[in-house]
Design a protein that fits this description.
There is one protein chain. By secondary structure, the protein is α+β, with helices and mostly antiparallel strands. It contains five helices and 14 strands. The chain has helices spanning about 95-100, 145-155, 175-185, 190-195, 195-225, and strands at about 5, 15, 20-25, 25-30, 35, 40-45, 65-70, 85-90, 105-110, 115-120, 125, 135-140, 230-235, 240-250. The strands form three sheets. It has a six-stranded antiparallel β-sheet. Strand 9 and strand 10 (about 115-120) form a beta hairpin. Helix 2 (about 145-155) crosses helix 3 (about 175-185). It is elongated and about 65 Å long. It starts with a strand and ends with a strand. This is MKRN2 opposite strand protein.
C-alpha cells in the first residue's frame, strides 16, 4: 500500500546517524523514505522534502508536482505485531544497517501472543519479541488457526532434540526447527513447502528478501548522499515502456 505523505502528521522528529527516525523520544525503525516527481519522469527519493528540486532547481513550495510526494512502503515489521507467523531477521545486527546477501539469516516462529520461539546455540528459547523489531514475515495462519498453531508449537517444542548440545550450525539449526514445526502443523502451502528446504527457501524466503533488498539499497544510497536526495531517472524505451537508464545520487 502506498501511503500519501502529509507534512507534520508525525510531529517533529529527528534522525540519528543511521537515518533511523526518533519520534517523541522513542526509536522508530522506519526511516520514512519519501518519493515524488517534479519536472519529468524522474523519481526523487528523500527523507524530507528539499526546498528546491534537485533536478531543475525550482523551489518546491510554489510549483506543481508531476507525482505528489508519498511514503515508500516499509517492508519490515515488529514480530510482536504478527502472531502465528514465521519471521526472519539477520543473525547479527539489523536489515537496514548490517544485512548483505552473504550474511546469515535467523528464522523463528511467533505464537498467538506474539512471543518468538527460536532455536539457536542456546537451545530452544521463548524470546521477547522486542528483540525482533525489524524483521520480515514470511507467512502465517489466520485467526481461527491460533489454537492449533499454539498446540502444535508446544508439542514440537517438547521434543527433546532441541537442545544446545544438539544444535549444529550447518544441518540442525533454526531452519530445522521451523520446518519441523510447519510439517507438523499441516497448514496448506506453508507445510507442503516445508518438506523440502530448498523449495521453502525459493517460495518464501527469497521473494521477501529480494523485495526488502531494494528498500535497503535505496536507504543506504540516501544515507550516503550529501544532499539526502536520490534521483532515479527513467527513459522511454523503443517499446514505449519505462526502463531505468541511470541512477545518480545528488
Amino acid at each position: 500500500m502506498v501511503v500519501p505523505y502529509m507534512s507534520g502528521v508525525a510531529g517533529p522528529h529527528e534522525c540519528d546517524k543511521d537515518g533511523i527516525k526518533k519520534i517523541g523520544g522513542k526509536m522508530d525503525t522506519d526511516p520514512g523514505i519519501l518519493c515524488f516527481q517534479h519536472c519529468g519522469p524522474v523519481n526523487i527519493f528523500c527523507f524530507e522534502l528539499p526546498i528546491h528540486c534537485p533536478v531543475c532547481g525550482a523551489p518546491l513550495a510554489t510549483v506543481n508536482f508531476r507525482l505528489l510526494p508519498f511514503r515508500v512502503p516499509y517492508p519490515f515489521v515488529r514480530a510482536a505485531q504478527h502472531p502465528c507467523s514465521i519471521v526472519i531477521k539477520p543473525t547479527a545486527g539489523d536489515f537496514l544497517n548490517d544485512y548483505f546477501n552473504s550474511k546469515d539469516l535467523h528464522i523463528g516462529v511467533t505464537d498467538s501472543k506474539g512471543m518468538v520461539v527460536e532455536f539457536d546455540r542456546g537451545g530452544l528459547q521463548w524470546t521477547d519479541a522486542q528483540l525482533w523489531k525489524q524483521c520480515l514475515v514470511l507467512d502465517g495462519a489466520a485467526g481461527p488457526w491460533s489454537d492449533h498453531w499454539d498446540g502444535t508449537l508446544s508439542l514440537v517444542a517438547q521434543q527433546d532434540c532441541w537442545t544446545s548440545d544438539g544444535y549444529n550450525e550447518a544441518d540442525f539449526n533454526c531452519y530445522t526447527f521451523v520446518l519441523s514445526f510447519l510439517r507438523s502443523l499441516r497448514y496448506g502451502r506453508l507445510s507442503e513447502a516445508a518438506d523440502n528446504r530448498t523449495e521453502f527457501c525459493e517460495k518464501f524466503i527469497i521473494p521477501r528478501t529480494t523485495a526488502a533488498g531494494k528498500y535497503i539499497s535505496l536507504f543506504r544510497k540516501l544515507r550516503q548522499s550529501q544532499s539526502k536526495c536520490y534521483v532515479y531517472k527513467m527513459q522511454q524505451s523503443t517499446l514505449g515502456a519505462g526502463s531505468p537508464v541511470a541512477i545518480t545520487a545528488r
